[in-house]
Design brief:
The protein is mainly α. It has helices spanning about 1-15, 20-50, 55-80, 90-115, 130-135, 140-150, 155-185, and strands spanning about 125, 130.
Length: about 200
């Protein structure tokens, strides 16, 4: 809930206040603080033994709302303050769709992997984090998106960076979706064992 307060406070500022350098910094800080709390809550809950299905549900619901609301807030702000030609507003609109589909795909794939006993999406193999994946997803990392709002005082520059983040996220979604589908399809193929690998 603390994460949600910081995050949606930043979104409200984006919609209600005309772009300025101080505003961009304030929005970036609020989003990053919200991100920090969101990243820490699950670990703290596990350390304290207070994790629960309700907590995980709430976390995912807030995240699902956040990933769709931020690009919509960008769209509203740029339309309301007439910062770009209306045609360019299709980018944050499309970013809304891409963000929602990517979030759903990652959550669903992770749940199917858990149910099937396969490694987490963040691992190459059990117990070995994927450093290559970590490097490849930097352009569409949520923390980088938060930092991009520092440029809000220069709307044209911000929109260029924002558009590049959209392209990178869309490319990741397409590539990841193809990989996830191939992996899930392999589990039902004849000759695969209970971990989804060919026997």
């Amino acid at each position: 809930m603390i994460s949600a307060i910081w995050t949606f406070g930043a979104i409200a500022l984006l919609i209600l206040v005309p772009p300025a350098w101080w505003l961009g910094v304030a929005i970036a800080v609020c989003l990053l603080v919200g991100y920090a709390f969101d990243s820490a809550d699950g670990q703290v809950a596990r350390l304290q033994g207070t994790s629960s299905p309700a907590g995980e549900w709430l976390d995912h619901m807030v995240d699902a709302t956040k990933v769709s609301t931020i690009p919509l807030a960008v769209l509203i702000a740029f339309y309301r303050f007439e910062l770009v030609d209306p045609g360019w507003l299709l980018i944050p609109l499309a970013f809304t769709v891409v963000s929602a589909v990517l979030f759903f795909g990652m959550v669903l794939t992770e749940q199917l992997r858990r149910a099937h006993g396969s490694p987490s999406l963040a691992e190459d193999a059990p117990g070995r984090p994927s450093w290559l994946r970590a490097v490849l997803v930097i352009p569409m990392d949520y923390g980088l998106l938060c930092l991009s709002f520092v440029l809000l005082g220069a709307p044209a520059l911000f929109f260029v960076v924002y558009s590049l983040l959209f392209v990178a996220t869309t490319a990741f979604l397409l590539l990841a979706s193809a990989k996830w589908f191939r992996e899930l399809n392999a589990w039902s193929s004849p000759g695969s064992d209970d971990t989804g690998r060919a026997s």
